[in-house]
Amino acid sequence: MTHPETGFGRRALLGASAFGATALALPGLARAQAAPVKIGLVAVLTGPQAALGTHLRDGFQLAMRHLENRLGGRPAEVLVIDDELRPDAAVGKVRAALERDRCDFIVGVVFSNILAAIIRPVTETQTFLISTNAGPSPIAGRGCSPFFFATSYVNDQNHAVLGAAANDGVEVGGQMRQIRRAIIITPNYQAGRDAAAGFKSTFRGEVMDEIYVPLTTTDFSAELARIAAARPDAIYTFMPGGLGVQFVRQYRQAGITIPFLSAFTVDEAVLPAQGEAALGLFTGTTWTPTLPTEQNARFVNDFLGQYNYVPASYAAHAYDSAFLLDSAIRRVNGNLADKGALRGAIRAADFRSVRGGFRFGSNHFPVQDFWLARVGRRADGRFQTEHVRKVFENAVDPFAAECRMPAG
Amino acid sequence: MTTQLLLIQALNGLQLGILLFLIAAGLTLVFGVMDFINLAHGVQYMIGAYLAAWIAGATGSFWLALLLALPLALALGLLLEFLVFRHLYDRDHLQQVLATFGVILVLNQGVKALFGAAPLQVPMPEALTGGIRLMEGLLYPTYRIAIIAGGLATAGLLWWLVERTKVGMLVRAGATNAPMVAALGVDIRRLFMIVFGFGAMLAGFAGVLAAPILSVEPGMGDHLLILAFVVIVIGGIGSIRGAFVAALLVGLVETLGRSLVPDLMRLFLSASEARQVGAAIASMLVYIAMAAILAFRPAGLFPVRAG
Asked: Which of A96, A220, A321, B144 has the fewest CB atoms within 10 Å, counting from its CB?
């Protein structure tokens, strides 16, 4: 713990050096050590994609429960912000959280377009922004920021995992299947095209066809007939949220037995709705409920006990980020004013992740393992993703080299 | 593209058309008879699906869900009519649009509060699982064939109701000239209520039918509502026959367009450009078709109102 007089001395020093920055830092110091650390937790909680934001929020709040509502020894307060999946709404609410509520950290964000909207408003005030899911490649590369960290991944990595996994073949019904020809099907928007590019970046076989469907598609029967007629060795798809529910169920109903590789399409957020239709389908991920770490067992068990549903990676990454903040605030003895020291403390990532080892790369994105996973049924009858094999070990994202991290 | 695949796509288009017809039938009557723009009609479809999910979840039976969801959808439609829409009939279209848009927001959030934001699943009835092998590696789900059959039967029933019964005659008369019907001593308000409740039930029926193949989630009706408006504009506002023909047309254009246009584009463009441009054009095709039809027949294919 910092003594009040130390804090005062630093305050005088900073006041002398840079007025602009200090004007923002002052209130944080003035509130002394007993004042709570304030976290603005941004998640989409309304609209069709709200299920993902609910995972994120519940994951973070379970961590706060495990940490007894303290971060690094200081009491903590979590302000939940619904970004409504609308960039303008997100910016307005986050600004209010920074200026009116004086949040010390902004954490969360499911969707990349929301992150892209709030990253500057947050980092310009020299507040640390921790993304627990969205990881657009520009922020990992040229647009990297000294005030931004991600506990998740760069979006493209999950797609690349499947391309690499396809090269080695996948096991279906106890039989190894070689994949030489694949069809890609994704929604026709930026993330969909990125998914196709990510898969192709590592897949060495032939991409027979790329099918792009409108984001509002509810019936895939036309596309499924095309896929069945083309008879590829596998399909690769990225169908987030409700799209994935419809696609997966219709895939099964059409009786198609072609191996199904995907990212963000079969995860615990949508598995309750996909049910048995998703059994045996493949996905690429950083985390599954089955990863055998002590932290993970506790996280999954307590999450089920608390919220009565199986957590997805949105929850796991959010859970990790609370422990990351805890470790960082402890490392700086609760003093959040020295941004440089705080950055070093976050970068140290001195906590035990549910994923096992965890460290940050030079662009503040994790260097971590990626898994091929398959949907299975738990002993309690619910569905979950289960890791099959490690595809990348200690993977650094392909954009890290483009990042010239500016000094804070 | 083989003939076989083309036939399968035509079947897919037919099935989408049938669902669209069930939604558009109510919409065209409400718009045609009452001159009332009901944006909340897509929400009735969502409510039908949620009722099915709820009842099927509680009882485990799809048939029971179908049986109970229909009267409940009717009752909810009438309740909405009583609480909200009744007060809007005499207002101008802008106010109707605003108020019914508000109903969309309230009900979308309402089902989210009640059932959660995550998509729900409705199990397929046991008797209709499985499929028919139309092509190697592809089953055509029996359930989709049942949708087509059920929809066609409903269309037949509707035709009989509108063309052969007294209420149907009043509805047709109301669509042509409502003030005159009222002047002849018909309780036009009660007629409105019947039409409205029936339309809500049809949309709910479409929702129940769609629930086992689509995911049941807040806002699921919003996209279909736009297509349903396209259908009633193409068909001629107030015309059930027009709605039927236009719904099948839109269903076929949408489905066949999605599968054929990217292939057609490949004749002129490189593969990757063809995919992007083809996907974009395919999603516009319905609207292009609507513009083309309206250019030749400004009142739609089967105009009802004279003058």
From this structure: A96
State the Cα–Cα distance between residues B133 and B137, nearest whole angstrom.
8
Backbone angles phi, psi at B96, to 5 degrees: -65, -45
CA distance B267 to B273: 11
CB contact under 8 A, B141 and A254: yes
Least confident of A25-39, A61-75, B267-281: A25-39
Nearest residue to A268 via CA among A384, A380, A386, A376: A384
Contact check, Cβ <8 Å, B223/A218: yes
Instruction: Determine contact, residues B73/B54, Cβ cutoff 8 Å.
Output: no
ipTM, 2 dp: 0.79
**Amino acid found at A45:** L
CATH class of A36-153+291-367: alpha beta
Residue A19: Cβ within 10 Å count: 9
3-state secondary structure A152-168: CCCHHHHHHHHHHHHHH
For A181, the enclosing helix (H) or strand (E) is strand A181-187
How many Å apart are CA A356 and CA A368, to the nearest integer? Answer: 9
pTM score of the predicted model: 0.81
Q: What is the pLDDT of residues A263-311, one digit of tens each?
A: 999 999 999 888 899 999 999 999 999 999 999 999 999 999 999 999 9
CB of B137 less than 8 A from some CB of A: yes
Question: Which CA distances in Å does B301 have to B29, B246, B254?
Answer: 16, 8, 18
Chain B residues whose beta carbon lies within 8 Å of the beta carbon of residue A49: 117
The alpha carbon of residue B175 is apart from the nearest alpha carbon of chain A, in Å, by 32
Interface check B3 vs A, CB under 8 A: no
Measured distance between the N- and C-terminal CA atoms of chain B, rounded to whole angstroms: 46
Write out chain B residues lying below 8 Å of A84, CB-based. none
Q: Residues of CATH 3.40.50.2300 domain(s) within chain A?
A: 36-153+291-367, 157-285
Which of B264, B299, B298, B295 lies closest to B278, judged by CA? B264
- The strands making up A70-71's β-sheet, listed across from edge to edge, are A70-71, A74-82, A37-43, A105-108, A128-131, A148-150
CA B184 to centroid of chain Cα atoms: 32
In tens digits, chain B (307 residues) has pLDDT values of: 578 888 888 999 999 999 999 999 989 888 887 788 899 999 999 999 999 999 998 998 899 999 999 999 999 999 999 999 889 888 898 999 999 999 999 999 899 889 887 778 888 888 888 888 877 777 888 999 999 999 999 999 999 998 899 988 888 888 788 888 889 888 888 888 888 899 999 999 999 999 988 878 888 888 889 999 999 999 998 888 899 999 999 999 999 988 888 888 888 887 777 877 888 888 899 999 999 999 999 888 988 764 3
Query: Residue A172: enclosing H or E segment and its boundaries?
Result: strand A170-172
Q: Please classify residue A199 by burial: count the beta carbons closer than 10 Å to its beta carbon, then call 0-12 exposed, 13-18 middle and 19+ buried.
A: buried
pLDDT digit string, tens, across residues B43-77: 999 999 999 999 998 998 899 999 999 999 999 99
Q: Per DSSP, which regions of A109-147 are E strands?
A: 128-131
The residue-averaged pLDDT of A44-52 equals 83
Domain ranges across chain B: 10-217
Q: Assess if CATH 3.40.50.2300 describes domain A157-285.
A: yes
Of A216, A229, A242, nearest to B5 by CB-CB distance is A229
Contact state of A46 with B279 under an 8 Å Cβ cutoff: no
